[in-house]
Design goal:
By secondary structure, this protein is mainly alpha-helical. It has 5 helices and 2 strands, in the order ββααααα. It has a domain of 78 residues. A hairpin with a 3-residue loop joins strand 1 and strand 2. The longest helix is centred in the middle third of the chain and has 15 residues. The chain starts with 14 loop residues before the first strand and ends in a 23-residue tail after the last helix.
Length: 122
């Protein structure tokens, strides 16, 4: 089985956070699994969990670590000290919204789709 990645310029799910260099934030399957395992939260609790600054920065750490596997939590803290807190929070929220695609819209924006339950099985 071969996995083929296609480019879709209309669906960019990467958010750039300027730290020591431009660093990509991308909410992927692997990042989400690591975050959920580290926090013990459920998928339905993600929105509420990232309202806690420690949880948000843990999720950002996991996104940064996906691009830089040698990154430690301590080095991540040093890097995050290079950016204003508001920027860190906004970029984290933007990366979450981009990761979920049209299912989640950043606050104040219209559009997107609302998740609908699957029809019952017959």
């Amino acid at each position: 089985m071969e996995i083929v990645k296609t480019e879709n310029p209309d669906k960019n799910d990467v958010v750039i956070l300027e730290l020591d260099r431009p660093r990509p934030l991308r909410l992927t399957h692997r990042v989400l699994k690591r975050y959920l395992a580290a926090t013990g939260i459920k998928m339905t609790e993600i929105d509420q969990s990232v309202e806690d600054y420690n949880n948000m920065t843990l999720l950002i750490y996991e996104m940064l670590r996906a691009d830089d596997p040698e990154l430690t939590p301590e080095k991540c803290d040093e890097l995050l000290d290079l950016a204003p807190l508001g920027t860190i929070l906004q970029k984290g929220a933007d990366a979450i919204a981009a990761g979920f695609g049209d299912q989640v819209q950043p606050e104040g924006q219209q559009g997107g789709q609302t998740a609908r339950p699957l029809p019952p099985r017959k």
